[in-house]
Amino acid sequence: MPLIWCSISGHGYGHAAQVVPVLNALGRLVPNLSAILRTSVPADFFEPRLDIPWQLKVGQQDIGCIQDGPLKIDVSRTWAAHSVLHSDWQQKIEAEAALIRSAGPACFLSDISHLGIAAGAATGIPTIGLCSLSWDLVLEPFADPVRCEHATILRQIREAYAKADCFLRVAPALAITAFHPVREIGPIAEPAVPQPAALRKAIGAGQSERVVLVGFGGIALRAFPFEHMEAMDGFRFVVDGVVPNGLTRVLSLASLGMTFKAVMASVDMILTKPGYGTIVEAVALGIPVVYVRRYNFPDEPPLVDHLHRYGRGAELSLADFLQGRWNAAIEQAFARPLSSTPPPLSGAQDAAHILKDYV
């Protein structure tokens, strides 16, 4: 029975959301495939999504970055957490490799843990990276040149990545430099089937009202301008977060009995940060996006470029977001024409056809 070991970053759910469609596609190519998921992402994320048999081995695979909400990186805490992870670095690699050996997988896949990749390579089995970013490129802009430990951490990350047999670069992506060879694959996303009539009925939206999903991904945003949102005639808002009682124009996603993906596929517009899954799915669905940029996340530019090249989008400053000055950006996004046909969501199938030769 072929077995694949998957080391998945627990920095939000975006990394797991890239791996799951790949495993599902691989399962259609490789009979009796099963997976071991080594991650801190909870089982209830995988249960409704992953079709092949799987086993969860809970364990932190990387840090990524420590965030103060979805829009800000806490730089000092991020480096402190990496310092802890990289202490006794070789021993951590050896311990992780021992776990992998005990399971006897045919190959190893990681999105995009350097600890996992170093351990996978140490076992001698085929070791493949998969992602639209790499942690060395995320951390590099925050490295303090007078802190030698920052350079050491970056070097260890790159040395680990260099041990992979190949890297599957998921479009749209950063220009990955630590992996060789790099193989290009298409975007990875599995949009839900749109149900606009069901959503509009559930929230009581009038025929002329626009329905907007306001959500900032797996790390919750704590501040919304609810008073301004409630005063915006012609709109209904579904918020992925807690909504105060007594509002009529703003509802919480949790109150609807629909998944985030189902709501996202069914709204007229999305207000969000530029995150991989949301941007790629919105472009594929043709849904306009108003986005609040973070400017200190290196993976933002390729996502914003993808949105403006293939979809409809407009930027909203953080100050305007917090003050409820949304109308101009919303109208700008709705008014943008679709310029190009987006690339097919072929990434999962592309990756599966590469991986099947290893399992």
Keywords summarizing the entry:
7-stranded parallel β-sheet, 359 residues, 13 strands, 6-stranded parallel β-sheet, 2 domains, single chain, globular, Rossmann fold, 15 helices, alpha/beta
Structure description:
The protein is α/β, with parallel strands linked by helices. It has 2 domains: 3-187 and 346-355, 3-Layer(aba) Sandwich (Rossmann fold); 196-335, 3-Layer(aba) Sandwich (Rossmann fold). The protein contains 15 helices and 13 strands. The strands form 2 sheets. It has a 7-stranded parallel sheet with strand order 3-2-1-4-5-6-7, with helices on both faces. A 6-stranded parallel sheet has the order 10-9-8-11-12-13, sandwiched between helices. Strand 11 (269-272), helix 11 and strand 12 (289-291) form a beta-alpha-beta unit. Helix 1 (14-29) crosses helix 15, helix 3 crosses helix 7 and helix 4 (89-103) crosses helix 5 (114-123). The protein is globular. It starts with a strand and ends with a helix.
